[in-house]
Amino acid sequence: MTKKKELLILILISIILVTAAILIIVFNNNLTEYDRAIAYYIYPLWSFSLSYSFVVWFRLVNRLTFLQGFWLGYVIKFGIIFIPILIAPFFMLKYFIDYFKENKQ
């Protein structure tokens, strides 16, 4: 898959996730004003960056040797799924920095 095609697919997935997050926020009447303010700024950012985060994370994990991957899985167990969720905006920035470095010509 080419980088441009991958980027377009990830942007489409991110837009769908942001739309779902915003719809959930809009239809949730139990949020206070403080929660709603956080939700309108933080949740869309996080949901937009999730798809890029998982791509970067699985590329990093695929570079590991078998022993390193086994040790990583042994140490953090199911945390291997939650790490890209927790630091999604950072991984999104890393994805775009790497993308623009590769396509700098």
Commentary on this structure:
The mean pLDDT is 86. The protein has helices at residues 3-27, 33-62, 66-76, 79-86, 88-102. The relative contact order is 0.13. It has one domain. It has 105 residues and is mainly alpha-helical.
Structurally, the number of domains stands at 1
Rounded to an integer in angstroms, the radius of gyration calculated over CA atoms is 16 Å
Low-confidence stretches: none
What does the overall shape look like? flat
Helix content: over 70%
For the sheet with most strands, the description reads: none
Gap between N and C termini: 19 Å
- Write down the secondary-structure element order: HHHHH
Detail the topology: elements first, then pairings:
Elements: H1 3-27, H2 33-62, H3 66-76, H4 79-86, H5 88-102
Short overview:
The chain has one domain.
List keywords for this structure.
105 residues
